[in-house]
Design brief:
Strand content: 15-25%
Oligomer: single chain
Structural class: alpha/beta
Radius of gyration: 21 Å
Distance between the termini: 52 Å
Number of helices: 13
Helix content: 40-55%
Strand order of the largest sheet: 1-9-7-6-2-4-5-10-11
CATH topology of the largest domain: Endonuclease, Chain A
Shape: globular
Number of strands: 11
CATH architecture of the largest domain: 2-Layer Sandwich
CATH superfamily of the largest domain: Endonuclease Chain A
CATH class of the largest domain: Alpha Beta
Amino acid sequence: MGWFLNKDELISELYNILRKAKRELVIVSPYFKLSTDLKHELDNLKSIEKLKIKILFGKNSEEKTKSMSKEDFQYLKDHNSIEIRYDERLHAKYYANEKKGIVTSLNFHEFSIQNNVEVGALYEYSRYKDFLDKIFGDTVFTYNSYADNRGKHFFNDQFDRSRRVFKKENGKVEFDYSEEFFNPKTDKKNIDQKVIKEHIQNNSTDETNTKKNLNNSGLINNKKRFNNAGAPWTEELDQQLEMLFCEGKSIKEMMEHFERSNGAIRSRIEKLELEEKYPK
């Protein structure tokens, strides 16, 4: 079931999503600016032990603090279970908990909430699904369940493709690349040492094997660490690669687009036989 939301209804439902999140909270917004009211609502979530928060933001690849300040980022890191990722192409805005979701024009930004003319569309999971399932069986609302979950499926897929910045699970930091993320000129050696240390702690392995594995995967090296090193190629990524190849993009441009090494790009071009399909 879906509803059109005007500005007042949109703000009200956004706060409802924050207040009623018990297991999961998804916030997708290119721009973040936490007002006192937003921080108050997020503060109330810190006591919910099982709640997991996922945040995706974007834009301003050259100066990311224009999309999210370091102060707001540090504030968000205090939550017990939270993962923050980044995609410079992001334009969509999407907010959801385990029961409701909103697709909207509204950024999670103090100015947008207070000043802009914004609209949205609210959807809920089937209200009577649990009741009718008990009577007619679990398959009655299979289609409705699929439709209700399409937003989450799309978000999770996009989230997994985006750049990792920070993750904490049950109070334990699993990765934190915020120093390099906000300060791209940070000395690579110090960053690599931090990655090695975190990997040893999380995987109970020795330093020699850790360095070897991380170096082979492209997660550390003396030149550049590629965020998607070792990640699987999908059909969609293969199509993007083929399109860029046909457009005559250089290997360097493809490396920047996919955040993968020179060798990874050339290897995929060879596997897809693009040079044979599109001889120059």
